[in-house]
Amino acid sequence: MVSLELARVAERAERYDDMADYMQARVTEGHPLDTEERDMLSAAFKNALTERRMAVRIAVQVHAQELEEGRVEQANLADGYKTRVENELQSICKKVLQLLETVLLPNAEPGEAKTFYLKMQGDYCRYMAEFTFAETFQRYSAEAQSAYASGMAEAELLHQVHPVRLGLALNFSVFQHEVLRNTSQAIAIATSTLESASRHLDEVPEETRSDAYLTLQLLQDNTQLWTSGLDA
């Protein structure tokens, strides 16, 4: 498959916008993605977003600093740049969500593939919510909540220490804490996942052990951090 091979080349060159375009072409070919291809799809769009999410945060900091120091014109320039990058972010997110809604989720096999795509749908709705306000924020927050909740139900088909199931629980809990500001629910999701996984740690396949253990550690770290924040 030409698009897949080009995506691999683009990944090695760290040209993630190109990689995302090639993976989009791979998706629209209509054949189900295997595990490696799903991971490549996720990596392509996530890396395309990462530098833009950072750029928005820096632009916000620059805007605030320039205003504080009385340089209104420079502050307005920073704000304009932020708006431009936010438009790029939203374009990427909408592209991913359209692929999920029209191709990937309708054709996903139950279990791992469907859980993976529901997690991805929740993630990109969450990213949209991060940079929107009012009714648009409410819309994407609700859609993220729905996708994550559906993913958690679908994940019941997977082993308790399956990396996709653990990754979904991690991101769902982060969404609760960072976007909905529902830290108690974030702790409940993380704690439940940790307790369930702890009873099956000896069943983790060697090939997925490092990924599973890393996610469990992140869940544990977040739980401790959030709990200490509530107690403060």
UniProtKB/TrEMBL annotation:
Q: Which domain of life is it from?
A: Eukaryota
Chain segments annotated as transmembrane: none
Question: Which is a Pfam family this sequence falls into?
Answer: 14-3-3
Enumerate the spans annotated as 14-3-3 domain.
6-232
Site entry: Interaction with phosphoserine on interacting protein: 53, 126
User: What family does this belong to?
Assistant: Belongs to the 14-3-3 family.
Name the chain's protein: 14-3-3 domain-containing protein
Which species is the source of this protein? Cladocopium goreaui
Lineage at the top is: Eukaryota, Sar, Alveolata, Dinophyceae, Suessiales
